[in-house]
Amino acid sequence: MTAISLRPLTPENARATVRLKVGEGQAGYVASNADSIAEAYVYPTFYPLTIYADDELVGFAMYGQDADDDRWWIIRMMIDARFQGRGYGRGGMQALIALMRDKHQCETITLGVDPANQQAIRLYESLGFRDTGEVEEGEMVMRLDVR
């Protein structure tokens, strides 16, 4: 069985992380990893992570706390097109939720998703996220209670 793990973004894996790409029809749903890494540099409460399946880099995630309202957000989640359909997105989300709950004692986790990205919405709903009715920057806001 493949082990999914979250690892720090490092000088050793940064270039390979920037080269990861989502599938053709998904490009409009997620910012590039380079843009996300730049955001993490500018916002000290954003934490970029890499996603590994065993010892192979398969994706990128970033989470953080909103300085305005103190909510914890999953800001980015992507699996490279070559590795999609293998359960790595689900495994990465489960690992990220556990990390946020355990390390930061999050009671709720929030994320934004393009309403047209039905595949991602189904994944998030299957993990317990629910539509809050909020819309932020054109994205549907979903929340998971992790108490």
Q: Could you explain the architecture of this structure?
A:
By secondary structure, the chain is an alpha+beta fold. It has a single domain, classed as Aminopeptidase. A seven-stranded mixed sheet has the order 1-2-3-4-5-7-6. The longest helix is centred in the middle third of the chain and has 17 residues. The radius of gyration is 14 Å and the shape is globular.
In N-to-C order, the SSE pattern is EHHEEEHEHEE
Which class of secondary structure composition applies to the elements?
alpha+beta
Q: For the CA atoms, what is the radius of gyration?
A: 14 Å
CATH superfamily: Gcn5-related N-acetyltransferase (GNAT)
Number of domains: 1
Q: If strands are numbered along the chain, what order do they take across the biggest sheet? A: 1-2-3-4-5-7-6
Q: Distance between the terminal alpha carbons, to the nearest Å? A: 29 Å
So what's the oligomer here? single chain
CATH topology: Aminopeptidase
Overall average pLDDT: 93
Q: Biggest β-sheet: count, sense, barrel? A: 7 strands, mixed
Short overview:
With 147 residues, the chain is an alpha+beta fold.
Question: How is the topology of this model organized?
Answer:
Blueprint: E1 4-8, H1 14-19, H2 33-42, E2 46-53, E3 56-65, E4 72-79, H3 88-104, E5 108-113, H4 118-126, E6 130-136, E7 139-145
